[in-house]
Amino acid sequence: MEYDVIIPAAGSGTRMGAGKNKLLLELNERPIILHTLEVFAGEPDCSKMIVVIQPKEEKIFREMTVGSPYEKKLAFVYGGAERQHSVYNGLKAVSTGIVLVHDGARPFIRRPVIKQLVSEAVRSGAAIAAVPVKDTIKQAVDHEVVQTIDRSSLWQVQTPQAFRLPILQQAHEWARAEGYLGTDEASLVEKKGDISIKIIKSDYDNIKITTPEDLYFARAILEKRAQLDG
Ligand SMILES: Nc1ccn([C@@H]2O[C@H](COP(=O)(O)OP(=O)(O)OP(=O)(O)O)[C@@H](O)[C@H]2O)c(=O)n1
Ligand SMILES: C[C@](O)(CO)[C@H](O)COP(=O)(O)O
């Protein structure tokens, strides 16, 4: 089943502390964002990669991708103040019945997980990548423990998140009308309350590169995968 993928890439990388968009930082001598694009570029069912960027970075993003084998698969749209606004803007460029949203900051997503998400979204309407929580999770207020959350039903949610297009469009329009801000697409769909969202078990190394130590993890993941790919 054909799908478009929205790739939010318009953040500022504040937590990375690099003084620039972290997706422009290099991993094995190539900007992080190119690693992410190359995953979907190789997916025959992915018809368009809608890369959401900051207007001031349009030149650098176009220069990075011009002449690439997947240049014709790319569309650039401008982002907004929050990740949710960026995704909303990306939605306007979607022209397929299934849409995926995948953080540009997650370059290690594997194709079998993408395929399972798309199949589930076709079947039931909504599916998200996640991994079971490994640590004990506690709620605290002012650094004082309030309670321990039973982790047997807890998942650490990632992207891609896959939806039938009308489901995501309606959820974003609802959130816009309500002024609701969520940290992922599924939280908006959940609020609408009328759709069951399935979890597809993903990989622990589908990390979101967010803080400086994630760059060490990222290099180790690349090294391990190079070994596995022989
Ligand atoms: N207004 C925004 C904010 C984030 N993103 C994108 O959403 C993804 C996940 O966001 P996050 O990891 O938080 O990236 P940043 O917002 O850049 O990081 P920070 O919160 O540390 O500034 C990233 O690929 C980021 O580029 C976006 O497109 N538009
Ligand atoms: C969408 C997400 O990657 C799921 O874990 C996460 O919520 C993004 O959070 P961020 O603070 O915008 O990076």
UniProtKB/TrEMBL annotation:
The record marks R151, K208 as: Positions MEP for the nucleophilic attack. It catalyses: 2-C-methyl-D-erythritol 4-phosphate + CTP + H(+) = 4-CDP-2-C-methyl-D-erythritol + diphosphate. InterPro entries: IspD, IspD/TarI, IspD/TarI_cytidylyltransf_bact, ISPD_synthase_CS, Nucleotide-diphossugar_trans. The keyword Signal does not apply. Keywords: Isoprene biosynthesis, Nucleotidyltransferase, Transferase. GO terms for molecular function: 2-C-methyl-D-erythritol 4-phosphate cytidylyltransferase activity. The record marks R15, K22 as: Transition state stabilizer. Its EC number is 2.7.7.60. Signal peptide: none annotated. CDD domains: CDP-ME_synthetase. Pathway: Isoprenoid biosynthesis; isopentenyl diphosphate biosynthesis via DXP pathway; isopentenyl diphosphate from 1-deoxy-D-xylulose 5-phosphate: step 2/6. Catalyzes the formation of 4-diphosphocytidyl-2-C-methyl-D-erythritol from CTP and 2-C-methyl-D-erythritol 4-phosphate (MEP). Belongs to the IspD/TarI cytidylyltransferase family. IspD subfamily. This is 2-C-methyl-D-erythritol 4-phosphate cytidylyltransferase. It comes from Siminovitchia thermophila. The lineage of its organism: Bacteria, Bacillati, Bacillota, Bacilli, Bacillales.
